[in-house]
Write a structure and sequence with these properties.
Elements: H1 40-53, E1 61-65, H2 71-76, E2 82-87, H3 90-99, E3 104-107, E4 120-126, H4 135-145, E5 146-157, H5 159-162, H6 180-189, E6 193-202, H7 204-212, H8 217-227, H9 233-240, E7 247-250, E8 259-265
Parallel strand pairs: 1-2, 1-4, 2-3, 4-5
Antiparallel strand pairs: 5-8, 6-7, 6-8
Amino acid sequence: MANRTRGSHDTISQPDLGDSVPPTLALTGERTVPGIAEENYWFRRHEVAYEYILERCRGKDVLEAGSGEGYGADLISTVATGVTCVDYDLSAVEHTRARYPRLTIHQANLIDLPLADESVDLVVNFQVIEHLWDQPAFVAECLRVLRSGGELLISTPNRITFSPGRDTPLNPFHTRELNPGELRELLEDAGFAVTDALGVFHGAGMQALDSKWGGSFIDAQIERALSEEPWPAELTDDVAGVATADFDITGTDLDASLDLLFVAVKP
């Protein structure tokens, strides 16, 4: 898989449900949600991984393990034969069920997936494994539910850049973050074969914003959020203007990546 081709999916349109649209899920820091200007950087940084793997999902039976708000599973459902979602958070499950009715969603623990052995072609697990207490048990469950030759598509923050120099994660919702070698080891120890080891990086547009905001566009957002003061209009506008085309996905220099994106195959 080469660098992501930018194209028709740079912006995901949410379904037009009129007055029936459920309220936006609360923004707690545990997950990202669409439609909030100040959250748009993190949302687009998550969304780009869904765009990248979309063609892999075409015509497949897909499980999203840890589906959160449901926007990613809904995108996958435009090409997949069927999409089943599992999430532990009841409020997220109820929201997803109401907003994205073409998805099948279950409330369950990810280390005890409510699916039969060898029942899906793909498992998608994006920005979730860092929240889990028993990561090996979850990966073993993914292996169990996948058919032979099926793929686990997994993304997670790169510990090296997300919590630099720390033994414990900066994000209080994270239990264990992984670097590239640790993620590979976790997958291979479970019996998977890693076929693609990729990373999400700031593209040219984001690099320009890094320069504009004192060297780190991320730090500028975090400092403002922690200050509990109103965001300046210029920063809000810059965050709201971020698109998935502003990120690159490549297998070069993984240690410097923002997020890891691995593809692992069940033999």
